Amino acid sequence: MSTRAPAPGALGGSAGRPSPAAEPPRRRPAPAASAAAVLLGGLLALAAVALLHLGYGRTGVGLADLPALFGGDEHARAVLLGARLPRTLAGLVAGAALAVSGALLQSCVRNPLASPDTLGVTAGGYLAVVLAGVTGASFGDLPRGALAFLGGLAAAALVHAVAGGRSAPSHLVLAGVAVSLALSSVSAVLVLLFQEETGAVFFWGHGSLAVADSGRSLSLLPLLAAGLIGGLLLARGLDILATGDDTARGLGVSVGRLRLSAVLLSVLLAAAAVAITGPIGFIGLAAPHIVRLCGVRGHRVLLPAAALWGGALLLGADLLARVTSPTGNEVPAGVVAALFGAPLFLLLARRLPAEPPAPPGVPGARGGRRVPLPLVSAAGSLGLAALVAAGLLAGDVPVPPGELLSLATGGGSELARNVVAEYRLPRLLVAALAGALLAVAGGIVQTVSRNPLADLTVMGVSGGAGLGAAVVLVALPALPYALLPAAAFAGAAAAFLLAYGLSRHRGSVAPERLVLVGIGVFALTTAATNYLVTGARFRTAQALTWLSGSTYARDHTDLLVLAAAAAAGAVLLVPALRRIDLLALGEDTPRTLGLPLERTRLAVLILAVALAACAVAVVGTVAFIGLVAPHAARMAAGPRAHRMLPVAALFGAALLVAADTLGRVLIAPAEIPSGLLAALIGTPYFVWRLRRG
């Protein structure tokens, strides 16, 4: 599969001659016979999948009963018209809309990884609909599409602002991932806070054809047609734009107006898909690449062919979701689409040209005087102690400060003793240790990879740990719960080795490629985890709580596991501090000093993965603690590992303790998973780092 068309670029485009990596492939346009073959192949694939989709179900109505659509058996006709046909029509319209949307985005920004989900459009559309539900706004089908359009357009503008006009494909995709995570976290918190108001859009928000109806799909069908016709009107300009901005301007193309029109059409089509089925990923990425793989480059053929293949892909994903469900439970089509689309993202990310290597030194390091380490450590310790004390006092059963002092001296009431000592203190200490482990692991990864955006969540390690734990929780419920940490470590190690191995090129690992491949691994492992959870019958609620990142019901056993991991990690980490500093100096200096570079780097990264896996095994997937805390520590204490990592541990512990306390207090006696709140805290920092470049 070629990733050189459309060439990489920024959302706002790049002036001047495109780089060699961004040049379009020097292939002649596909002849008319080939174009007709691609269109015919897409039409036949769509027709075949649509027939299979209509004919599959658990009501006894099969392919042989399809003629009942035109009269005959009333039972079969009722099943086909009432349940099957609306679902098939929704998949056709939404899949085609997502495919054309992705093709337009990839062409106008010249980025092979661009799609409505990787650039935050679908997440923005979903958040807009959730906000409408929270505020009580009444909307039907078309207004829902309008809301999704406005939300998607705002998300696309935010991604463009965060990317800052930079032309690197990795920067644009990272900006899109950051915005998507932020918007998704906000949506999840709103759904939890306003369950009654948002209940109608909760299942729809997972990307499923089960909630579709014919009226909604038919009402948005003209919008799909208008978007496709608009794309065809822009086809000649998009073909010329692939040769570069200067060439396009020289041929009389208004590049800015063309890009704006293409983005607006893309967001409009993605909003139509979101209004029908909810946010579904990777269809807009995969369908255009399938068509380009057949040799089609001209947009007059690319857009309609992508629409046909997009409909076929989404219907196929929904059919696979129903056929392969191990328990018969409804598995959202979006989960299966991600399961098969993430490997394509991995392939494309791996084949992106490497960007200039990072200069020697620790990411985020700045000159100037640093605050003395004892002062930083004392301030961090006092802040952590204050947050723990606040967490002990706050909750659905408030504890007076005097009671806390009495408990510290061995007194206090029995109620306060039970609430504080048996419930709140263990989970707060678990949060502190887990946050510290995640922060130290993130600091190691950032320093060793010399990548300021490296994070164990972004690199796929947390997703791998989640998949390993989900196997124990839902796929093999007969296994003892004590195997959960081992399973999480195995999953994290496998995900890390996959990301690290796919990122290697000619004996080295490019930092940008490592992060992009890690995003693909995270998407793949998350999709596999969601598939296991949504199709499971046992321990599903426990798995969902754990996957959201929560310290709920954590006790002294979990505390002992984390304490043992922290102690073992400290013993192994202290002798490695000097080597970590040397690895931050680049490739040549460590080799000159006799350090076995690759072996040392791999060993240190495995230690970081082990620390993170232990934390994930206990508290679930918590995002961005490993990104935020090391940067804050580096700014406060300096880049040297012996200064930065202990302070990062304090900051990480404080962040997760604060998230745990807020999660217990905001909607008490119910709770918001601390992982969601941690993501809300960490994502703005991630966006800020991207904006600064």
Please describe what this structure looks like.
The two termini are 30 Å apart. Strand 1 and strand 2 form a beta hairpin. The chain has helices at residues 32-55, 74-109, 121-135, 141-163, 169-193, 195-202, 214-233, 235-241, 245-250, 255-277, 283-293, 299-323, 333-351, 373-393, 401-408, 414-449, 461-475, 484-503, 511-534, 540-547, 556-573, 577-583, 588-592, 597-619, 625-637, 641-665, 674-692, and strands at 504-505, 508-509. The chain folds into two domains: 29-319, ABC transporter involved in vitamin B12 uptake, BtuC (Orthogonal Bundle), CATH 1.10.3470; 376-454 and 535-692, ABC transporter involved in vitamin B12 uptake, BtuC, CATH 1.10.3470.10. It has 27 helices and two strands. It is mainly alpha-helical.
Layout of helices and strands, plus pairs?
Blueprint: H1 32-55, H2 74-109, H3 121-135, H4 141-163, H5 169-193, H6 195-202, H7 214-233, H8 235-241, H9 245-250, H10 255-277, H11 283-293, H12 299-323, H13 333-351, H14 373-393, H15 401-408, H16 414-449, H17 461-475, H18 484-503, E1 504-505, E2 508-509, H19 511-534, H20 540-547, H21 556-573, H22 577-583, H23 588-592, H24 597-619, H25 625-637, H26 641-665, H27 674-692
Helix pairs in contact: 1-2, 1-12, 2-7, 2-10, 2-11, 2-12, 3-4, 3-5, 3-6, 3-10, 4-5, 4-10, 5-6, 5-19, 5-27, 7-10, 11-12, 12-13, 13-19, 14-16, 14-26, 16-21, 16-24, 16-25, 16-26, 17-18, 17-19, 17-20, 17-24, 18-19, 18-24, 21-24, 25-26, 26-27
